[in-house]
Give the backbone structure.
Amino acid sequence: MHELSLAIAIVDLVERHASGRRVTAVNLKVGAMRQVVPRSLEFQFGFAARDSVCEGARLEQEPVAALLRCGACGHDWDPAPRAAETTSDLTFSFRCPGCGTAGFEVVRGEELEVESIEVGGNAGARSNQEERCTAPR
Amino acid sequence: MHRAKVRVAEDVLDANATIARANREDFDRENVAVVNLMSAPGAGKTSLLERAVEQPGGVRVGVLEGDVQGSLDADRLAALHTPVTQINTDPGFGGECHLDANMVRAAIPALPLAEVDLLVIENVGNLVCPAEFRVGEDARVMVSAVTEGEDKPLKYPLMFRTCELVLVNKIDLLPHLDFDLDRFLANLEAINPGVDYLLVSARSGEGTNAWREWLGALPDRLAAGARR
């Protein structure tokens, strides 16, 4: 359900970078630990983009697998659930499989980053600046 | 028509993080420790605050109440002579389901920061969105009631991973439920190894002294951490 909040944040961010140009695509990196449901984010992005420079833009989501590094032994591991044989395997594992320690640093997997946007002219949308530049009505 | 790819490389929540840092600076300047209190609706955030806002050690606690609508929770706490400020999220996108840094920022002028040592921000009841949005807090506390079931850490890992203290509430109901406390704690340990937790009942008062003490000791703990 937080996908709508994230979609609104994405549109706000893109508007700041688009300088009024119409956006045709938004390329997003999504870490596995962000609990983002891709189809839900895509759906909500469609709503959030209405009446903005993002209206009609594609949202390309690149998944980033998680990687943790043990603070004690330096072992790297992916905490994602393995193909589940039992229900207990359905959970992420935040304890080092090598030495059992709980302290770790996140190497990757927490990304939620707009990597780039694709823009094409300013046909569809007008920025505030352009509005200011139009002749007085 | 000219087409171009524009490199952005910006975290989606950067804008929120920047405002959260500004909030944090304002709180630090006034020497106020800040707790972000989160849970699902009805888990007992307000009831547990009623048990903890009156501090025997003289720590002065204020509350910022976030609700989608109304001031029911704020009224309960104000009855305890605690400074309470209410923010409603309903002017947002049809009633936001969480507080973000900007909403807290807007409330700062109304907060009696000079009169409190500790500010508890009671977030909107929700186990998902509040976990994403830092508001300028020093510590995150969540309430998980035993009536919610022992699987919740596995279903909402983002929330359970980001908090420093978990209050396991409504333990007075354990004799009447199938809730498996050991299983819950094992699930919690899997998601957030070594996280502190307290078994409490806002209704009977069991365990709430430890919660009151944890909260009251936070300003000193933070000050000691900053000196180190």
In short: The beta strands of chain A are 23-31, 58-64, 67-70, 76-77, 104-108, 112-120. Chain A has a mean pLDDT of 84. The radius of gyration of chain A is 20 Å. Helices of chain A lie at 3-18, 38-48, 128-133.
